[in-house]
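User: If you would, consider this record:
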Amino acid sequence: MAAMHRPRRSVLYMPGSNARALEKAKSLPADGLILDLEDAVAPDAKEQARAQVLDALRQGGFGRRELVVRVNGLDTPWGHADLVAAATSGADAVLIPKVESAESVRQADRILREAGAPDPLALWVMMETAMGMLNAKDIAGASPRLACLVMGTSDLAKELHAAHTPLRLPMVTALGLSLLAARAHGLAILDGVHLDLEDEAGLEAACRQGRELGFDGKTLIHPKQLDAANRAFAPSDAELAAARRIIAAHAEAAASGKGVVVVDGRLVEALHVAEARRTVALAEAIGDA
C-alpha cells in the first residue's frame, strides 16, 4: 500500500505507562496508535513505560493499525535510550517531539541507523514550536526516513500565548506552513488534538476544518473521538462516486483522443483525474483496514 494512501484518519495517543490501555488499543477502530513515552508519562514512570511499550509491540495483536512510538527528546535523560529501544521494536514509526531543525531529524536518524533500525522504520516529527514552524521546509526535507509531520497545537498555543478558538485562527499560519512543507516533500501530515472531550460539535468542526485545509487525519486523545475523525477524513459515498465517474469519463475521452472531458458540468483535466484516483485508493485502503 502506498504510504500516501495509507489511512491515517484517526491516530490515537496511548500512554505507554498504562498496560491496560495498550491492551484495549488492540480493539479500537483507530487507523494508527501513538504509544507515548513522552508527555503522557510521568518522569518516575519513564523506564516502566518503555518496557511496557516494547513488550506490547513484541506481543503484537494490533492488526493493521499503524504503530508509532513517541520517544522523549534527546535533551532529556531518556531520549537516547528510547530511540535505541524503538529502533528494533517492530514499530512502524518513531515520533520525535519538539523538532526545531533539520539537524535534529538527522541526529535521530543516525541514532536509529546505528541501533540497527530497518530501512522501513519511518521517522515522524512533532511540529509544536515557533522555531519549528520557521524551519518547517528544512525539517520536512531532512531525511529520506521522514514520513509524517504531526501538529502539536497544544504546545504551540502555549509558546505563542495564543488562545484555543473554535476557528483556530491563531494557528492558521503554523498549520499552513507545516502543510506546505509536508506536501512539498511528499510527506503525510496530521492535525493536532482537540482537548475538550465533551465538545462533540467542536471536535467535528475541527475535523472538518482539518480536512478542508488538507490534513490526512487527526491526532486524538480519547477513544470517544475516533468516530468523528474516521468520518471526517474518509471520502464520502458521493465523493467516491464522483471520483469514479471522473476516472471512467477521462479514460473514455483519452481512448478517443480527447485531452479533456466534462463530468457533472465541470471540466476535467489530468490533475482532477490524479486526485480522483487518490480518493479511490484511499477509500479502498480504508475498506481493507
